Amino acid sequence: xxxxxxxxxxxxxxxLVDDQQLVRAGFRMVIDSQPDLSVLVEAANGEEAVTRxxxxxxxxxxxxxxxxxxxxxxxxxxxxxxxxxxxxVVLTTFDLDEYVMSAIGAGASGFLLKDAPPEEMLxxxxxxxxxxxxxxxxxxxxxxxxxxxxxxxxxxxxxxGAPVLDPxxxxxxxxxxxxxxxxxxxxxxEALAQAPSPGPDNPMxxxxxxxxxxxxxxxxxxxxxxSNAEIASHFVVSEATVKTHVGRVLTKTAARDRVQxxxxxxxxxxxxx
Length: 273
Fold this sequence. Notes:
Helix content is 46%, strand content 10%. It is α/β, with parallel strands linked by helices.
């Protein structure tokens, strides 16, 4: 089970948004059982959530997608635009369905299956609070399968809010055609070995040109679904160091989060489904 944060005196503030009262009650019971977590807000639909969160600051929102009055997609879009915007984790019955993809595009930091074990739900709350996205390696593989057709027909940006490449930016010339994201956690060394290597004869696309060699390696591993902890383990550095690299990668590529990094890497041919 995910470990509580170091300072339970200032618990992570959580909002639950779901039109089923029993679902909210179950989540509240699990969350409030943890010393470092506390449910401050409950809402039965997106409209109510936006109203309540406009006056109450929370850290993480667990958001259902299909609700009356205002669905979770529009509610997420409005909530992440608030002055002290919380992170949003989408609750869904179906893994990576079209509604979840749209919610991620609206600003959600990841998704969580409603029937996930309690420890996964707790880990999701703590993960997004720490600044990471809730999308693992196996989910990255499925995400790539979903965004492939979107990129082919030009709808990825509208659905996912994906960074748009400069039309004059060609993909790397030596893309390994047989490369695919492995199921489970990819092997970092293999992922790096199969990614295009920057060099005089193989300049990186402009969108990646400002990355340092280490930041490019972190970019590749992020695109393959590795967590900060897994990247830190591979490079034998602290998670804090990796978090700094991740922040710089996001800033330099103008990507909002890890989901956009996956999309960008796919667009460039650095990863393939």
